[in-house]
Amino acid sequence: MKELVEILAKALVDRTDQVLVVQSETEKSVHLQLTVAPEDMGKVIGKQGKIANAIRTLVKAAAVKDGRRVHMDIDQ
């Protein structure tokens, strides 16, 4: 799931070198922390959060295969 978020984020931003995804796991859940450059925050979040919600939806769909829950945060 970490790789999925990283690929999606790098496709959206201008400063791909500043994309960082940190994954922490428990038995039944995964927490992802996406960090991007401040000037790229709008591109990752989108209008009214639509792009961020779309990324979360894709990650949750990937997590269903593993029977896990996913929580994703976006920071700068």
From TrEMBL:
UniProt-listed Pfam families: KH_KhpA-B (PF13083)
Keyword Transmembrane attached: no
Major location (coarse): cytoplasm
Record's subcellular location: Cytoplasm
Cellular component GO terms held in the UniProt record: cytoplasm
GO biological process: cell wall organization; peptidoglycan biosynthetic process; regulation of cell shape
GO molecular function, one term: RNA binding
Gene3D superfamilies hit by this protein: 3.30.300.20
The keyword Transport is annotated on this UniProt entry: no
This protein's UniProt keywords: Cell shape, Cell wall biogenesis/degradation, Chaperone, Cytoplasm, RNA-binding
Domain of life: Bacteria
SUPFAM superfamilies: Prokaryotic type KH domain (KH-domain type II)
Subunit structure and binding partners: Forms a complex with KhpB.
Job description of the protein: A probable RNA chaperone. Forms a complex with KhpB which binds to cellular RNA and controls its expression. Plays a role in peptidoglycan (PG) homeostasis and cell length regulation.
HAMAP family noted in UniProt: KhpA
Sequence similarity: Belongs to the KhpA RNA-binding protein family.
Alphabetized NCBIfam families for the sequence: PRK00468.1 (NF001748)
Protein name in UniProt: RNA-binding protein KhpA
